[in-house]
Amino acid sequence: MGQSFNDSKPIFLQIKDRIEDQIVNDQLKVNDQIPSTTQLVTFYKINHLTVAKGINLLVDAGVIYKKRGVGMFVAEGAKELLIEQRKKSFVDQFMLPMIQEAQKLGISESELTNLIKQLKGRE
Amino acid sequence: MIMKKDVVFKHVTMRYGHFKALEDLSLQLAQGKIYGLIGRNGAGKTTLLSLLASFLEPTEGTIEVNGKTVFENADLMQQVTFVYEKEYKEDTEKVKAHLEAVEAYKPNYDPDYALELIKAFNLPLTKPVNELSKGMMSALNVTIGLVSRSPITIFDEAYSGMDAPTREIFYQKIVEDHALHPRTIILSTHLVSEMDYLFDEVVIVHKGKLILKEPIDVLLEMGAAVTGAVEEVDHFVQNMKKINSQRLGGTKSVMVMETLSEQQRIQARQTGLEIGPVSLQDLFIHLTKEGDQDEQK
């Protein structure tokens, strides 16, 4: 049984995210073959149209490339590209909601910094 | 444009005595796609498929494949494989001999693929066909459907005897083999939620009529579930086609048939509404509800 998806985002974006995750954490390296559409369909039990939509986004972004009749492979520089993109969205996706919530709860900036330090110390 | 092996139903009516199993149904299926044929019990699914397989002659209208009428057309019948819950009570030949007989009249039969499926489904080759369990019988029927690789392959709830793990194998084989050997496959079912990922297009029949035929991605974008505070939800959905509505205290959830724009989604989020997807199962249930809701409104 494949991992389940959630409703927060269209499934094709979640497919894209998962492949990107595997590239960022080195499960898939440069020139590694990514799973085929058929494999993704049977693994996640999602429609091939949905899979193709997610994969095409990765091709368009230059993260993966197509070899006709063979499959899809991780492009040169894909990881660096993805990290760059994620750094940009880090502010919107993680920091902004955190700051908004902190404001609601009346957590001051220095408290926030302390909390971050504490969390990091735990690792 | 009519493509090769296109299936065309033109104004087809099928009457059994006074009962109309199908009424003025027109439908076109393109070559090479996987269709999900969905309908409640008695909606007319099997009649529709039996007509395509030339088991029946329509009372009115025509059914053509590749521009030729199907009924009693031997050439076309070879191109169509119809798999249904067949029983073999009288059939004492062994599974192996039964498959060999299929091989003799299906031009695209692939013996290597047959071996692969026999292994996957654990089919007992030396057992007489009439002694197979219900699940094994389904597996044999499904094997015949897959291995024949007919340009038009129909599975009419042929998997109902299978247990869930076996159905899973069947779905996987469909996906894999269709990728390698594209052909028109029609899967009629009411197990919508576990099969919806297989379909390219969905055809819903209800009370003998075609009520919907759409590519699955279009269909799933056509519906949305709007959840939130009662007044906010009511305000948001006021001019939309509503197919279902549920209420829990001050929270309301309404299913709409509406392709929401990005603008509408943003607006919904800003007013604290949650927009969720509607599954094919939900659409099916609410579009085929008893007591035609459109007429009641």
TrEMBL record, chain A:
One Pfam family hit: GntR
InterPro entries referenced in this protein's UniProt entry, alphabetically: Tscrpt_reg_HTH_GntR, WH-like_DNA-bd_sf, WH_DNA-bd_sf
Gene3D superfamilies: Winged helix-like DNA-binding domain superfamily/Winged helix DNA-binding domain
Single GO MF descriptor: DNA-binding transcription factor activity
Domain HTH gntR-type stretches: 9-77
Xref: PROSITE patterns: HTH_GNTR (PS50949)
Keywords: DNA-binding, Transcription, Transcription regulation
Transmembrane segments: none
Coiled-coil ranges per UniProt: none
Protein name as catalogued: GntR family transcriptional regulator
Organism: Jeotgalibacillus campisalis
